[in-house]
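Protein entry
_____________
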Amino acid sequence: MLHTVEENRQYRKTLLLITLVSLALFLFFLYEVLTQGSLLDLDAWISEHVPQMQSQTLTEWIVRITNMNGVVGSAIISLLLSAYLLYKKSHKALLFYWIAYLGGSALFTGIKYAVERTRPLLKIINEQGLSFPSGHSTMSMVMALSLYFIFISKLERKGARYLLLAITVFWPILIVFTRIYLNVHWFSDTLAGLSLGVFWVTLLVLLFPLETKK
């Protein structure tokens, strides 16, 4: 548990700042897409140049990685996590995770249908649906950040905490790379997904606090 009232207040202030900044970033990306802003020029440039780094072997590995955060992969991870949390009788953490997971899924899906942005024409796999924001990017951040908040209080060693933080940062970035490499999303789609995921999870932590220290 947090050691002092002042520490708790400072923690919540920091969390609120992250929530507001991530929301502001998402709204910026949304504005750029809706108004056909200059960021879309960068989107087009990246999409046009991505094929230069594509190869058959690398593509096979990239597809495997991106599928780990697809519907089936995410469901398997979520069910395994649920089984573990039930075994540990961590009912609050389990409820938090599923609110984050299902809420995040509903959030990005609703925005997709509201914005109706099409995917890049140069995509190299058969990916259906709309483009903004990236669902893979959103959910990779939602899942990674949720796991961070759930497990950080259970880790006593600083090294383990740093490792958890590194995984929390690395995994969503890796998924973003796979979506851009496969040309199934514009660059701004993935950034919007990351910021949306951070906003959603940190908002939930503010509303339904989890233990953050031993």
Q: What stands out?
A: The longest helix spans residues 5-34.
